[in-house]
Amino acid sequence: MIDGLSHHLPLFELPDQRRFASRTMRPRALVPGTVTRKGHATHRSGCATTGRPICLGGGQFADCLSRSKERKLFGMKAKKQSSRNSGVVAQKQDRNSSEFEAKSGQRKLSGQTLHGLHGLGPQTKAIHGGEPNRCGVNGPVATEIIRSSTFTFSNTEEMKEWAEGKNKAYIYTRYGNPTLSVAEKKIAALEGAEAAVVSASGMAAISSSLLAVLHSGDELISTAQLYGGTYRLMRDVFPNMGITVHHVQPDLCGIEKRVNARTKALYIETPTNPTLRLVDTEKAIEFAKKHKLVALIDNTFATPVLQNPIRLGYDMVVHSATKALAGHSDIIAGVSVGSQEWMDKVRQMIIYLGGSMDPGAAYLLIRGIKTVGVRVERQCENATAVATFLEKHPKVERVHYPGLKSHPSHELAKKQMRGFGSMLAFDMKGGLPAARRFCDRVRLFLLAASLGGVESLVILPIYSSHYNMSDEELKRAGVSPGTVRVSMGLEDKEDLIEDLKQALE
Ligand SMILES: Cc1ncc(COP(=O)(O)O)c(C=O)c1O
Question: In order of start, what are the domains of the chain with their CATH numbers?
């Protein structure tokens, strides 16, 4: 039986939101900074590679391309808004600007202010967050792709200042790019974080985030039930770098025994892949804080729609943006989210290791994020229907879906998530042969790896995410050979259930 969360915590509605007054619904004025050929007095301090400016002008990024003497750059230190900025002018600015810039001059927006003061809902943030100025005649509504590997400077003085970290101009797309910046600000807004760094894949985000924290001699504590690629990175690569990894079960049992003076970070994934166990996010962050560990969490399965760990105090959230964020199975992408300070470090790793995102992928990511709320809502609905059907089927041994009362993490899911998610798994009674037969017979469900797209998918974890693992490792990861993982898409649930029926016959 499904115990719906909608009575508990309504999907898409954070407890502190929906305090909309018509005035606060409208994004407030965001005053662009001004950069001239002569100097960069308006730039804010910090790492030269973060807080990328976004050029404003007739088009979204049009001034980036102009040769005018005075270029207006978004995200540079803003001019103070004068008290005369009221009436028509203020209203115009209200209409023309975005409040989602992670930082702009006087207004440093933290998760707190994004949600508390501005009171905008997550779907509004997904659509308008991070977008540059869109107004006036002939302005494109969709985000422009700045398909350029490199960017001009007006003179060598500007370049010198960039090299000295005194301005934050775009120089080269591996360091940052206006289209990437939109994606970063949008995801930071959605997660309630100060900043984000997009990357070429989820694994680029995970490896760059972990390497921003860990050095030779350091130790990491991680949950054992992880995406296989993350687990293999910890098993096959980190030991060669002098980094020791200790694994604990999702219930964190015995975790205190794993910590010592060399432990630097805690890494968790919840819900876990593929059996959808939950890690208690409050318990985990309490442990991390107690031992002064950097806390990282893979939020791919939950999505920012269903949980926002930054608000609990996690230092970094990572995503395979390939999945629900992009949502259409057409790009490989990743993102790390957190404080500006941590994101500066992650960006440095992306720059060193080269895992930067392509602007075309950033465009598709931005487009996908705009509908993530409605997609995840529908996927949760479909997953609930399919899990309920499978649970009653005589050929199914067990269904792993946190929305089912029979799932060991059901109560925890109700407590810490705003929906039960789009992923489920089930064990066939006949083990691997029965699971293979089922996967070979589905017609509407596609037999494919990955998740979070509009198409429903099935996969055998032992032949995909959890390949190249010993029986012992599979047992620890909670994977049995007869486990089938299902990623729910957006099709009609009646059609999906019909397909399951015929495949299970
Ligand atoms: C939970 C989770 N994290 C990270 C990744 C890695 O992401 P990517 O394939 O985009 O590198 C995956 C991929 O399936 C995943 O499922």
Answer: 11-373 (3.40.640.10), 374-504 (3.90.1150.10)
